[in-house]
Amino acid sequence: MDMLKEISQHLQGGSKEKVADMTRRALAANIPPKEILDRGLIDGMNVIGEKYKAHEIFLPDVLLAAKAMYAGMDVLRPLFIKEGMPSLGTVVIGTVQGDLHDIGKNLVGIMLKGAGFEVIDLGNDVAPEAFVETAKREHASVIGMSALLTTTMPAMKRVIECVQKEGLNGRIKTIVGGAPVSEEYAREIGADAYGYDSTHAVECVKKLMTDIS
Amino acid sequence: MREIIEIATEDALPTAPDVFTIQGIPTHKKPSATTVQLFTETKKIFTACVQCAGITADIAIAAFDSVYAGEGMNEVATPLDGIFRKADNLALFAVTVGAAVSQKIDYLFKTHEYALAGMLDAFASAGAEKVADCVQDHYRQRLIRENVAAEKTVVLRYSPGYCGWHMSGQKKLFDYLEPGEIGITLLDSFLMKPLKSISGVFVAGSKDIHVFKDDFPICSECQTHSCRSRIQDIQKKRA
């Protein structure tokens, strides 16, 4: 079997040891790291994303696959030291000020990394200024915000206002999500996108990246 | 009466279907073997770090009226508004599975043990509901023991943040109940810490007071309509 296909399949099975081992073997066989990343690891995560979306597999399987992907990326990372890990772009994510729920945000981060994005996770209870400052400093293209409470949702609006105030709304796009958040609310506060779940969030971020470029 | 209730760890352990449902696995789907293995591992972790506690405080209807009004942000029409006034007894409550569980979830995420972290998060959410069930049952048994309630009395719980009772209602609830004694505090955003905690009111009375139609204006925004299964459970008991 094609080594890259094998990496992708082991990743889909959530076997981190096999993914790491096969990644090393692929490198030893002189397969370029970028090809291993794209056609092995990211391909595997894309399949996982599709299966999750189709309800063929569920959250634990996705998370096991994500860990397997990172095991492969850990092998590749030293080879990208000079030019940095190839990335589709940088996304700053966090749970908004006043809110401590971060399981949904973590999942979005995992799926974004799996799709090939650089993700800077600011954690939870993140001040609006911290989102914007980090996005500016890290040259991020997207800010992703999560909230699980109706009382903390307004903090999303403050982040968007902060982006607008700094005149960055053409360069930095915003996406919101979380149980009480709706597409209507996202529109109301001026967010560029609303992700109803982790896989949809990834699709939205890809689209936002296209809009920027 | 104000009471701190001790809960045995084994009473806080949720079932696998309860945990899988929170993880988005439908009950009719068979989880993968690795998922079942994760559940077993998670159960051990949870058992090792859970610190269950519960507290209740009886409250009169008039006093609860003020707690319920909270910061004046409730929806105009809510199911609970009609229910609690018909209650025989009310008690505020708060329960938690403790801070160590949340710390363990954070640690697992930070060390890239995502699947275990996700499973523990779901396990802890289901565990907190189990603790609330135990405390609710304890409250009902006390009412019966003290001849305040009959055997047929139904106790159901309602929480701020649901069914039109605004989250800000937590403030007055906390002022009255003072659950700091069992380690639960309230943040400015009205979020409880530890995260895996539940608070609200136990409403004791006849079955009929808990039955309502889900046609309140707020019901159109509800994604779960979980009130239906609670009401169905009551009606099953009636049959």
Automatic annotation (TrEMBL), chain A:
TM spans (from-to): none
UniProt keyword annotation of Iron present: no
InterPro entries listed in its UniProt record: Cbl-bd_cap (IPR003759), Cobalamin-bd (IPR006158), Cobalamin-bd_sf (IPR036724), Met_Synthase/Corrinoid (IPR050554), Meth_synthase_dom (IPR036594)
Pfam families in the record: B12-binding, B12-binding_2
Residue ranges constituting the B12-binding domain according to the UniProt record: 88-213
Similarity remark: Belongs to the methylamine corrinoid protein family.
Protein name according to UniProt: Methyltransferase
GO cellular component: cytosol
Alphabetical UniProt keywords: Cobalt, Metal-binding, Methyltransferase, Transferase
GO annotation terms (biological process): homocysteine metabolic process; methylation; tetrahydrofolate metabolic process
Gene3D superfamilies: Cobalamin-binding domain, Methionine synthase domain
Domain B12-binding N-terminal: 1-88
Source species of the chain: candidate division WOR_3 bacterium SM23_60
PANTHER family cross-referenced by the UniProt entry: METHIONINE SYNTHASE
Gene Ontology molecular functions: cobalamin binding; metal ion binding; methionine synthase activity
SMART domains: B12-binding_2
